[in-house]
Amino acid sequence: MRLDTIYRMKNTETIYKTVLTIAGSDSGGCAGIQADIKSISANGGFATSAITAITAQNTVGVNTIFPIPVSEIKNQIHAVLSDISVDTIKIGMLQSAEVIEAIAQTLAQYPIKSIVLDPVMVASSGQLLVDTSAMDALKSFLPKATLITPNIPEAQALLGINAVSADTMPDIAKKLGKTFKTSVLLKGGHLENCTTLMDVLYVYDTDSLHNFTKTQIDTKNTHGTGCTLSSAISTHLALGNTLKEAVQRGITYTHQAIVAGKSKELGKGNGPVDHFYKLH
Protein backbone atom coordinates (compact mmCIF):
# COMPACT_ATOMS: atom_id res chain seq x y z
CA MET A 1 0.00 0.00 0.00
CA ARG A 2 1.29 3.46 -0.90
CA LEU A 3 2.41 5.71 1.94
CA ASP A 4 0.07 8.52 0.92
CA THR A 5 -2.89 6.10 1.09
CA ILE A 6 -1.85 4.96 4.57
CA TYR A 7 -1.51 8.61 5.68
CA ARG A 8 -4.99 9.49 4.45
CA MET A 9 -6.50 6.45 6.19
CA LYS A 10 -4.79 7.33 9.46
CA ASN A 11 -6.02 10.92 9.31
CA THR A 12 -9.60 9.79 8.67
CA GLU A 13 -9.52 7.43 11.65
CA THR A 14 -8.12 10.02 14.05
CA ILE A 15 -10.05 13.13 13.06
CA TYR A 16 -11.37 15.22 15.95
CA LYS A 17 -15.11 15.44 16.61
CA THR A 18 -15.45 19.19 16.69
CA VAL A 19 -17.92 21.71 18.09
CA LEU A 20 -17.94 25.41 17.25
CA THR A 21 -19.36 27.47 20.09
CA ILE A 22 -20.63 30.96 19.25
CA ALA A 23 -21.17 32.88 22.48
CA GLY A 24 -19.91 35.56 24.85
CA SER A 25 -16.83 35.36 27.04
CA ASP A 26 -17.13 35.15 30.84
CA SER A 27 -14.01 36.52 32.55
CA GLY A 28 -14.98 34.65 35.73
CA GLY A 29 -14.79 31.33 33.88
CA CYS A 30 -18.14 29.96 35.07
CA ALA A 31 -20.35 30.44 32.02
CA GLY A 32 -20.21 31.49 28.36
CA ILE A 33 -17.37 30.45 26.10
CA GLN A 34 -15.28 29.29 29.04
CA ALA A 35 -17.97 26.89 30.30
CA ASP A 36 -18.63 25.74 26.73
CA ILE A 37 -15.00 24.83 26.09
CA LYS A 38 -14.73 22.97 29.40
CA SER A 39 -17.94 21.03 28.78
CA ILE A 40 -17.05 20.15 25.18
CA SER A 41 -13.58 18.98 26.24
CA ALA A 42 -14.82 16.98 29.23
CA ASN A 43 -17.32 15.16 27.00
CA GLY A 44 -14.73 14.12 24.43
CA GLY A 45 -15.00 16.80 21.75
CA PHE A 46 -12.64 19.43 20.37
CA ALA A 47 -13.81 22.99 21.00
CA THR A 48 -13.48 25.88 18.56
CA SER A 49 -15.02 29.29 19.22
CA ALA A 50 -16.34 32.58 17.91
CA ILE A 51 -16.72 35.21 20.63
CA THR A 52 -19.69 37.57 20.30
CA ALA A 53 -19.03 39.76 23.36
CA ILE A 54 -16.51 40.21 26.16
CA THR A 55 -17.96 40.50 29.64
CA ALA A 56 -16.26 41.68 32.80
CA GLN A 57 -17.96 39.43 35.33
CA ASN A 58 -17.38 37.16 38.30
CA THR A 59 -19.46 34.95 40.59
CA VAL A 60 -21.34 37.99 41.94
CA GLY A 61 -22.51 39.57 38.68
CA VAL A 62 -21.78 41.18 35.32
CA ASN A 63 -19.99 44.54 35.48
CA THR A 64 -19.64 45.46 31.80
CA ILE A 65 -20.34 44.00 28.37
CA PHE A 66 -18.21 44.88 25.33
CA PRO A 67 -19.81 43.71 22.04
CA ILE A 68 -17.44 42.33 19.42
CA PRO A 69 -17.92 44.07 16.03
CA VAL A 70 -20.18 42.04 13.75
CA SER A 71 -17.50 41.90 11.04
CA GLU A 72 -15.11 40.24 13.49
CA ILE A 73 -17.72 37.72 14.62
CA LYS A 74 -18.18 36.74 10.99
CA ASN A 75 -14.41 36.58 10.49
CA GLN A 76 -14.05 34.17 13.41
CA ILE A 77 -16.77 31.87 12.05
CA HIS A 78 -15.32 31.96 8.53
CA ALA A 79 -11.82 31.24 9.86
CA VAL A 80 -13.01 28.11 11.65
CA LEU A 81 -15.46 26.72 9.10
CA SER A 82 -13.26 27.35 6.06
CA ASP A 83 -10.55 25.11 7.54
CA ILE A 84 -12.00 22.76 10.16
CA SER A 85 -14.69 20.12 9.70
CA VAL A 86 -17.17 21.12 12.43
CA ASP A 87 -19.71 18.50 13.47
CA THR A 88 -22.01 20.67 15.61
CA ILE A 89 -22.57 24.40 16.09
CA LYS A 90 -23.49 25.49 19.63
CA ILE A 91 -24.95 29.00 19.94
CA GLY A 92 -25.37 30.94 23.18
CA MET A 93 -26.55 34.46 23.92
CA LEU A 94 -26.96 36.70 20.84
CA GLN A 95 -27.40 40.28 21.98
CA SER A 96 -28.83 42.03 18.91
CA ALA A 97 -30.75 41.52 15.70
CA GLU A 98 -27.66 42.55 13.73
CA VAL A 99 -25.55 39.81 15.36
CA ILE A 100 -28.26 37.16 14.91
CA GLU A 101 -28.76 37.98 11.24
CA ALA A 102 -25.01 38.09 10.57
CA ILE A 103 -24.49 34.67 12.16
CA ALA A 104 -27.42 33.19 10.26
CA GLN A 105 -26.09 34.54 6.95
CA THR A 106 -22.56 33.32 7.67
CA LEU A 107 -23.59 29.79 8.70
CA ALA A 108 -25.79 29.50 5.59
CA GLN A 109 -22.60 29.48 3.49
CA TYR A 110 -21.43 26.17 4.98
CA PRO A 111 -22.79 22.60 5.17
CA ILE A 112 -23.80 22.58 8.84
CA LYS A 113 -24.64 19.15 10.29
CA SER A 114 -26.46 20.27 13.42
CA ILE A 115 -27.08 23.39 15.49
CA VAL A 116 -27.89 23.50 19.22
CA LEU A 117 -29.19 26.91 20.25
CA ASP A 118 -29.50 27.99 23.87
CA PRO A 119 -31.83 31.04 23.65
CA VAL A 120 -30.44 33.11 26.52
CA MET A 121 -32.96 35.93 26.75
CA VAL A 122 -34.07 36.29 30.36
CA ALA A 123 -31.95 37.29 33.37
CA SER A 124 -32.33 35.49 36.70
CA SER A 125 -34.30 38.56 37.86
CA GLY A 126 -36.85 37.92 35.11
CA GLN A 127 -35.76 40.91 33.02
CA LEU A 128 -35.55 40.46 29.24
CA LEU A 129 -31.96 40.71 27.98
CA VAL A 130 -32.90 41.34 24.34
CA ASP A 131 -35.03 44.01 22.69
CA THR A 132 -38.00 43.48 20.37
CA SER A 133 -35.96 43.48 17.16
CA ALA A 134 -33.54 40.90 18.54
CA MET A 135 -36.44 38.73 19.72
CA ASP A 136 -37.99 38.83 16.25
CA ALA A 137 -34.66 37.96 14.60
CA LEU A 138 -34.14 35.10 17.05
CA LYS A 139 -37.59 33.68 16.35
CA SER A 140 -36.82 33.76 12.61
CA PHE A 141 -33.55 31.90 13.22
CA LEU A 142 -34.93 29.16 15.52
CA PRO A 143 -36.20 26.92 12.67
CA LYS A 144 -32.57 26.59 11.50
CA ALA A 145 -31.65 24.86 14.76
CA THR A 146 -31.60 21.12 15.29
CA LEU A 147 -32.44 21.66 18.95
CA ILE A 148 -33.26 24.65 21.15
CA THR A 149 -32.81 24.46 24.93
CA PRO A 150 -35.00 27.12 26.63
CA ASN A 151 -35.69 27.25 30.32
CA ILE A 152 -39.20 28.07 31.53
CA PRO A 153 -38.85 31.90 31.53
CA GLU A 154 -37.42 31.74 28.00
CA ALA A 155 -40.28 29.51 26.85
CA GLN A 156 -42.71 32.02 28.31
CA ALA A 157 -41.01 34.85 26.44
CA LEU A 158 -40.97 32.95 23.14
CA LEU A 159 -44.64 31.98 23.31
CA GLY A 160 -46.00 34.99 25.20
CA ILE A 161 -47.53 32.84 27.94
CA ASN A 162 -47.65 33.10 31.73
CA ALA A 163 -47.60 30.21 34.20
CA VAL A 164 -45.88 26.91 33.34
CA SER A 165 -46.15 23.89 35.63
CA ALA A 166 -44.65 20.41 35.59
CA ASP A 167 -47.97 19.11 34.24
CA THR A 168 -48.03 21.55 31.32
CA MET A 169 -44.34 21.24 30.36
CA PRO A 170 -44.91 18.52 27.71
CA ASP A 171 -47.60 20.62 26.01
CA ILE A 172 -45.40 23.73 26.13
CA ALA A 173 -42.39 21.85 24.70
CA LYS A 174 -44.52 20.51 21.85
CA LYS A 175 -46.05 23.94 21.19
CA LEU A 176 -42.57 25.47 20.98
CA GLY A 177 -41.47 22.75 18.56
CA LYS A 178 -44.53 23.11 16.35
CA THR A 179 -44.31 26.91 16.39
CA PHE A 180 -40.62 27.12 15.49
CA LYS A 181 -40.32 23.83 13.55
CA THR A 182 -37.48 22.44 15.61
CA SER A 183 -36.81 19.99 18.42
CA VAL A 184 -37.00 21.41 21.94
CA LEU A 185 -35.48 20.57 25.31
CA LEU A 186 -37.60 22.47 27.84
CA LYS A 187 -35.61 22.70 31.08
CA GLY A 188 -37.51 22.53 34.36
CA GLY A 189 -34.90 23.98 36.69
CA HIS A 190 -37.02 27.07 37.42
CA LEU A 191 -39.95 25.08 38.83
CA GLU A 192 -40.44 25.92 42.49
CA ASN A 193 -41.01 23.61 45.46
CA CYS A 194 -39.93 20.49 43.57
CA THR A 195 -37.55 17.85 44.94
CA THR A 196 -37.56 16.08 41.57
CA LEU A 197 -36.95 18.18 38.47
CA MET A 198 -38.06 17.30 34.97
CA ASP A 199 -36.75 18.24 31.55
CA VAL A 200 -38.93 17.52 28.52
CA LEU A 201 -37.59 16.73 25.05
CA TYR A 202 -39.85 17.19 22.05
CA VAL A 203 -38.39 15.62 18.90
CA TYR A 204 -39.81 17.47 15.91
CA ASP A 205 -39.01 14.87 13.24
CA THR A 206 -40.85 12.06 15.05
CA ASP A 207 -43.43 14.23 16.89
CA SER A 208 -42.45 12.47 20.12
CA LEU A 209 -42.02 13.51 23.75
CA HIS A 210 -39.48 12.20 26.28
CA ASN A 211 -39.20 13.07 29.97
CA PHE A 212 -35.94 13.14 31.94
CA THR A 213 -36.08 13.39 35.73
CA LYS A 214 -33.38 14.12 38.28
CA THR A 215 -33.11 14.98 41.95
CA GLN A 216 -32.77 18.67 42.73
CA ILE A 217 -29.39 19.50 44.30
CA ASP A 218 -29.21 22.02 47.14
CA THR A 219 -26.34 24.23 45.99
CA LYS A 220 -25.59 27.78 44.91
CA ASN A 221 -22.98 26.55 42.43
CA THR A 222 -25.11 26.49 39.29
CA HIS A 223 -23.57 29.41 37.38
CA GLY A 224 -23.22 28.32 33.76
CA THR A 225 -25.35 25.15 33.88
CA GLY A 226 -27.29 26.13 30.75
CA CYS A 227 -24.07 26.67 28.78
CA THR A 228 -22.64 23.44 30.17
CA LEU A 229 -25.71 21.37 29.24
CA SER A 230 -26.14 22.71 25.71
CA SER A 231 -22.42 22.24 25.02
CA ALA A 232 -22.49 18.67 26.35
CA ILE A 233 -25.47 17.84 24.14
CA SER A 234 -23.69 19.43 21.16
CA THR A 235 -20.65 17.28 21.80
CA HIS A 236 -22.61 14.04 21.99
CA LEU A 237 -24.34 14.92 18.72
CA ALA A 238 -20.90 15.47 17.21
CA LEU A 239 -19.84 12.06 18.51
CA GLY A 240 -22.66 10.43 16.53
CA ASN A 241 -25.39 9.93 19.13
CA THR A 242 -29.05 10.31 18.29
CA LEU A 243 -30.77 13.46 19.58
CA LYS A 244 -32.44 11.58 22.45
CA GLU A 245 -29.16 9.87 23.40
CA ALA A 246 -27.23 13.15 23.22
CA VAL A 247 -29.77 14.88 25.47
CA GLN A 248 -29.73 12.03 27.99
CA ARG A 249 -25.93 11.99 28.11
CA GLY A 250 -25.78 15.79 28.38
CA ILE A 251 -28.28 15.85 31.24
CA THR A 252 -26.46 13.07 33.09
CA TYR A 253 -23.09 14.78 32.71
CA THR A 254 -24.40 18.17 33.85
CA HIS A 255 -26.20 16.70 36.85
CA GLN A 256 -23.07 14.84 37.96
CA ALA A 257 -21.00 18.01 37.48
CA ILE A 258 -23.43 19.88 39.73
CA VAL A 259 -23.21 17.15 42.38
CA ALA A 260 -19.40 17.15 42.24
CA GLY A 261 -19.21 20.93 42.55
CA LYS A 262 -21.95 21.55 45.11
CA SER A 263 -19.61 21.97 48.11
CA LYS A 264 -16.69 23.66 46.36
CA GLU A 265 -15.99 27.37 46.63
CA LEU A 266 -15.06 29.97 44.05
CA GLY A 267 -15.57 33.66 44.75
CA LYS A 268 -18.28 35.24 46.88
CA GLY A 269 -21.35 34.44 44.79
CA ASN A 270 -22.73 31.63 42.66
CA GLY A 271 -19.93 29.29 41.67
CA PRO A 272 -19.57 26.91 38.73
CA VAL A 273 -20.21 23.22 38.31
CA ASP A 274 -17.21 20.88 38.39
CA HIS A 275 -16.71 20.28 34.66
CA PHE A 276 -13.79 17.91 35.08
CA TYR A 277 -15.12 15.78 37.93
CA LYS A 278 -14.17 12.61 36.04
CA LEU A 279 -10.48 13.48 36.39
CA HIS A 280 -10.50 13.56 40.20
TrEMBL record:
<keyword id="KW-0547">Nucleotide-binding</keyword>
<protein>
    <recommendedName>
        <fullName>hydroxymethylpyrimidine kinase</fullName>
        <ecNumber>2.7.1.49</ecNumber>
    </recommendedName>
</protein>
<keyword id="KW-0418">Kinase</keyword>
<keyword id="KW-0067">ATP-binding</keyword>
<dbReference type="InterPro" id="IPR004399">
    <property type="entry name" value="HMP/HMP-P_kinase_dom"/>
</dbReference>
<comment type="pathway">
    <text>Cofactor biosynthesis; thiamine diphosphate biosynthesis.</text>
</comment>
<keyword id="KW-0808">Transferase</keyword>
<feature type="domain" description="Pyridoxamine kinase/Phosphomethylpyrimidine kinase">
    <location>
        <begin position="26"/>
        <end position="274"/>
    </location>
</feature>
<dbReference type="Pfam" id="PF08543">
    <property type="entry name" value="Phos_pyr_kin"/>
</dbReference>
<dbReference type="GO" id="GO:0005524">
    <property type="term" value="F:ATP binding"/>
</dbReference>
<dbReference type="GO" id="GO:0009228">
    <property type="term" value="P:thiamine biosynthetic process"/>
</dbReference>
<dbReference type="GO" id="GO:0008902">
    <property type="term" value="F:hydroxymethylpyrimidine kinase activity"/>
</dbReference>
<dbReference type="GO" id="GO:0005829">
    <property type="term" value="C:cytosol"/>
</dbReference>
<dbReference type="InterPro" id="IPR013749">
    <property type="entry name" value="PM/HMP-P_kinase-1"/>
</dbReference>
<dbReference type="GO" id="GO:0008972">
    <property type="term" value="F:phosphomethylpyrimidine kinase activity"/>
</dbReference>
<dbReference type="InterPro" id="IPR029056">
    <property type="entry name" value="Ribokinase-like"/>
</dbReference>
